[in-house]
Amino acid sequence: MNMSMRLASISSAVVLAAAAAFACSDDATPAPSGSDDAGSSGSSGSSGSSGSSGSSGSSGSSGSSGDPDTGPAVLNGCSSYVDRTAEDASRVIQWDTTLFQRDNRCMKIKKGQKVTFATDDTGGTPANFDTHPLGAQGGDTPNPVESALEKNTGEVSFATAGNFGYICTVHASMVGAILVTE
Q1: Which stretch of DSSP H or E encloses residue 110?
Q2: Domain total for the chain?
Q3: Does residue 109 fall inside a structural domain?
């Protein structure tokens, strides 16, 4: 292979590697399509913010207290939250690499409620936490996402109010936050 062909081959490999890295950690992820179940089960219809952050484990916001007049600080790309505080509301998050497309990755619940991370939006089968390890990222501490996860059910209980970030520790685009109110 001549020198020009080698350089072209190396350039192509670099471009592909950069594109793959960019796809996993791009902060300019397309806006959610709205096809999620955000409008069902008592939802207020508010939508989550698009985008993902945290490719290096940093959410860009370590706290969540925010301004009382404007609400909580942006956490893991969440500036608005799908309201799932109603008793009969679905609090299931489909835990896969398409999470960034769904509004409910930014969810508001009440203290004492549970969120289920599942293979689909019905919540019948817990997520595969070996393939997609669930971790805490940003927000208030202690964060129940890691300490209260029941792997056999995929449920996390939120006993205290606050804003709690989460992430797949393998896929940086799988990120969101749970806003827990009194």
Answers
A1: strand 106-110
A2: 1
A3: yes
